[in-house]
Amino acid sequence: MAEDKRDEEPLADAAEESMTDDQGPETTETDDAADVSEGGGSDAELSLEDQLEKLQEEVGLARDQALRAQAEAQNAQRRADQDVEKARKFALERFCSELLPVVDNLERALDAINGDDPALSSIAEGVDLTLKSFVGALGKFQIVQLDPAGEPFDPQLHQAMSMIENPDAEPNTVLTVMQKGYTLNGRLVRPAMVMVSKAPAAE
């Protein structure tokens, strides 16, 4: 019986050593796994921050592009509105140019009629009424007559046909209007043809 107990004791010691050896490696593997887990979490957080920053940059670029597109659309709409307004205002420009010779001929006819002849007085009155009615109709469509006699010469509205010395008038004053000018909504359709005064030459 004593021999059996002695044989069992070495067996028990061997079992305890085996259990100790098995627990040692398991603890080491668990610690390594914990270390890897902590390291992976840090990398994931950095990756999320990078992604967030990238997304914010993309949102900023998209916002800038949207604002540019909106500004371009507004500018295009503004230009289109201006073109339509100009087309509406000056659509009659060519038609106006065709009507002006009619007005010129009525004025010439009125100037040619001798007012001393009673037989022609009724004709002169009729031509004058027709001319006034014609000019009034043009005015309703913003076609304005330029008759600058006695006014300072304006090269933007007048065309000087000649210059005449005149001591009684200021230099660059319109002395005679040879042909009246016209504007359409403020734009010059035809300049007035005029004769302009100049200072007398020094003796």
UniProtKB/TrEMBL annotation:
Gene Ontology cellular component list: cytosol
Domain of life: Bacteria
Family annotation (HAMAP family): GrpE
Location of this chain's protein in the cell: Cytoplasm
GO biological process: protein folding
Residues making up the signal peptide according to the UniProt record: none
Record text on subunit structure and interactions: Homodimer.
Pfam hit, one: GrpE
Presence of the UniProt keyword Cytoplasm in the record: yes
Encoding gene (name): grpE
Stretches the record annotates as Disordered: 1-59
UniProt name for this protein: Protein GrpE
Keywords of the record: Chaperone, Cytoplasm, Stress response
Described function: Participates actively in the response to hyperosmotic and heat shock by preventing the aggregation of stress-denatured proteins, in association with DnaK and GrpE. It is the nucleotide exchange factor for DnaK and may function as a thermosensor. Unfolded proteins bind initially to DnaJ; upon interaction with the DnaJ-bound protein, DnaK hydrolyzes its bound ATP, resulting in the formation of a stable complex. GrpE releases ADP from DnaK; ATP binding to DnaK triggers the release of the substrate protein, thus completing the reaction cycle.
NCBIfam families: PRK14139.1, PRK14140.1, PRK14150.1, PRK14151.1
Keyword presence, Transport: no
GO molecular function: adenyl-nucleotide exchange factor activity; protein homodimerization activity; protein-folding chaperone binding; unfolded protein binding
Family: Belongs to the GrpE family.
Acidic residues compositional bias, start-end: 10-35
